[in-house]
Amino acid sequence: MRVALISDLHFDVNHVDLATNLPQQAAYLRAQGVDLYLIAGDLTNHFRQSLAIAERLQTLLAPAQVRFIAGNHDMVHDVSYEQLETFPATTYLHNRFWDLPGTAWRVIGNNGWYDYEFADNLTGRNFRAWKNAFWVDSPIPQPMSDPERMDRVLTQVRQQLVAAQRAQKKVLLMTHFAPRREYIRYTHDDRFWNMANALMGSPRLGQLITDFRVPIVQFGHLHRHFWPQHFQATTYYNQTLGYHNRRINEWYHWDYLSEWRDRLRILDLH
């Protein structure tokens, strides 16, 4: 099966004409023979809009399948924590899995979260207060602390990996936040970014991935252009598209469709 990976599409921030772009994406994916399109979060800043986009892509691509998880931006509006955990849409893969027909592969989705451990080079800092003052995540409701939320993520992922192991499935794990320290940018002169590292993800997820020898991990959140990287038994893919606007340009191309094609990663899984 052919699986296409992407994340951080940010349709709204990038002012994308959905009526034009979504059929263009679908046409390109069909031309490439893609059977499954995986979007690792941050479609828009509104969960209902992100869901509607995934559902529209599913209609355009059928019988191929579309699955997405929520990134932090998708969580800002129109959804509660409880809804994020249980939303029933088929295209939404958080804490669920999908077995690729005719293969030994299972795709496991989990939105993920963070626990401040990527900022352990800083001491005595109130990361929660900093987040509430400066970060886009501040309006996101949750009934627990960030480290406690990450604990729940780890429990969910572990349970899914144990089940996949028992079913003798090879796993592609899709999550939004960073799972390894190698992707984190530490600096001596950018205090803002060193604080933001607290909200990038958790090295504990990377350790869990290593413990279970997960073959493939797809994640997003970091708006940088990484090549696939191999750590222990795992290949990591970060296929973020990112921002192109008056303040920030993270693209190599000037138009959205060209950047999307360039960032898209297609895998053949047997």
Report the CATH topology name: Purple Acid Phosphatase, chain A, domain 2
Architecture, according to CATH?
A: 4-Layer Sandwich
Reported for the largest beta sheet, the result is:
6 strands, mixed
Strand order across the biggest sheet? Answer: 4-5-6-7-9-8
**Net shape:** globular
Enumerate the spans where pLDDT stays under 50 for 5 or more consecutive residues: none
Strand share of the residues?
Answer: 15-25%
| Helical percentage | 25-40%
**Highest CATH level, the class:** Alpha Beta
What is the strand tally?
Answer: 10
Task: Report the span from N to C terminus.
Answer: 6 Å
pLDDT averaged residue by residue? 96
Rg of Cα set: 18 Å
* Number of helical elements: 8
Summing up helix and strand content along with how strands pair, one would put the structural category as alpha/beta
InterPro entries: Calcineurin-like_PHP, Metallo-depent_PP-like, Metallophosphoesterase_sf, Phosphoesterase_putative
Organism: Levilactobacillus spicheri
Domain Calcineurin-like phosphoesterase: 1-224
Protein name: Phosphoesterase
